[in-house]
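Supplementary Methods, section 5.1.

A reviewer requested that the exact input to the structure prediction be made available. We therefore reproduce it here, unchanged from the version used in the analyses.
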Amino acid sequence: MMLPYPIRDKILLDIVKTNKYVGVSFNSDKTKIGTIAEVYDINEVQDGANIILQGLCRFSKDYPIDDNELYTQAYVSYKEDIINNIDEVKALKPRILGLFSKINKISPIVPREIISIIDTIKEDTSMVCDMIAASSDTDLDERQSVLNEVELSKRMRTVLKILNSKLNIIEIGIKVDNETKKSMEQTNREYYLRRQREEINKQLGDGDKDNKNEVEIYKERIDKKGLPQEALDEANRELKRMERMHSASHEYSIVATYLDWLLDLPWNDSTKDNTDISIARDILEKDHYGLDKPKKRILEFLAVRKLKADSRTPILCFIGPPGTGKTSLGKSIACAMNRKFYRMSLGGIKDEADVRGFRRTYLGSMPGRIIQSIKRAGSNNPLVMLDEIDKIGSDHRGGDPASALLEALDPEQNYSFVDHYINVPFDLSKILFITTANTLSTIQPALRDRMEIIELHGYSQYEKLKIANGFLIPRQIKEHGLNDSQIEFTEDSLDEIINAYTLEAGVRNLEREIANICRGVATEIVDNKIESEKINKDIVKKYLDVPKFKTISDIEITKPGLSTVLYASSLGGGIDLVETIKFKKEGKLQRVITSGSLGDVIKESVGVALSWIKENRPLLAEKITEYDIHVHFPSGATPKDGPSAGIALVTALVSLFTDKKIKSNLAMTGEMTLRGKVLEIGGIKHKVLAAHRASVTDVILPKWNKKDIGELPMDLHKDISFHFVDTMEEVLGLVFE
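The structure derived from this sequence is encoded token-by-token as follows.
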């Protein structure tokens, strides 16, 4: 193949004139092989010459004789083609020729003269590869990579790779061209049809009838709605934008959706409150047993509302374990007040926009949950229940939804709540917000400060029996298609279900177990095995299998070194053992091992207990130093922390080293100082209810918690003896047999 080569240096031109053959290579790290060429012709021009070179063969430099900026004299080695795999060469050749032909059919990039030359030399595989690589619009690096390959099959694979890349680029370019052309044709067609339709409508005098009709409808709705001034101005502003738009445009539908939201909100629609306290009291008593505090607070609100119609609406927060009736109580309150009810679950939300809404600049934007709840309730004074407010999350990308709730739940601000989507103030002050939570600890302090906390501690045994007989059993009998003559629950059967199958603060699992029995009875009646069933303690096991829980009397507590402690959690109260053992020291230092997923505060309480015993029981102190001690709380998978196990730890350790057993059916709770003072603790009602569920007959409490006992149901006072203590010495005087 002949190629022109320009020379602009006179010295180099003189050298070329005196030599028939020259070597051509590039000064590059990638250059391994050059080309020996014959000087075929020299055409001198004004500033040099253009020489025509005929490539002959490959060469590699062995070592230079003379090397300068213009040229290099060197000994070279002639590089013949190497063929290691003739079968591969035969297989690759037709693929290369076919691919080269395909590229030139799709996008002719090689002159016809070159194609003719390739056709005449197609028997010379090496020459064909070199010609195709040199003529296929390849860059310098690609050509050099072909030149570097002396082994023929490798060179052919390199050429094949280059051709595949070229074909891929050409096909992508053709695809892009076709898509662009198609898009332009479609755009032009739509534009032409739109202009044609507009011209026809103009000639007929119709204009955009759909647009005009819809705009008139919205205008009529705006006039009739009686919007506040800011909302009215915003609605008219959006309506003017709508008039200038075509009904088929995307922006038109966005404006229409916004106007629908704005006009569907109940700006002036409200329900009349029922201020008859006797009717409200009857409704609340009918739907729920107990729960005196929240009922009393709602009746107080209705009384004030009757005397002062524009009184401020409170923000209530029901705190209590699962199943204590928080959500269902909200429904009853709405019914008693004659208000619409809407429940909004906040558990797991992490984005502020879920509360405040998304700005209309975003695609698919919509109002927040508060505005949505008002629209769905259909009045501007509904009862909105914000469920699981203690389980709100936060995300660095979406902001803090708890902080967004501050404005909505603040009576000083919520009369002008602005949702990001609606973007005009809406009065939330008429809404009765009731929130629910299992614990106060995870609620943001600023949010907690805006709410009136009402605790629902849980139910006693007596209260659960009343609820089961008055509410749960009738409901489950009805839901399972039974009647009172087909199934009857005795009191001992309910006692068994409550104590052995549902160790909980609420009644959710109690209702679930009653439903299990009703299903079992319904199945046996349908199978014609029985006509009716009287459920007693023994029959309960037939339908519910073996008991799921043990009472304290079922747990081995007669061994020295054990004591029973009461605790409170977000799920209610509970009862647990403190287990201690001693064993001879292995070294000079005493080891105190703690286990049972204990937090730092409980571990510190263990140290306080040991220090107090060593200080106040000298005889035990000598014995204690001879042993290593292990303190364990069962249920190791459940994390435990807090100071209220202090007196139980001292009791267990004194019992261990005196070898005295603690009284049966005795439980305790209280924090102890190094001086032996017993301090006030929280969660008394949860803890005492747990003791009652576990059939405990004696409970030791701090003297400072005596005031909390008045809140307990009367049946607990009959079944439990309370012992109030001020010092650890008083505790030890009560616990041993």
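The longest helix spans residues 152-204. These observations are discussed further in the main text.
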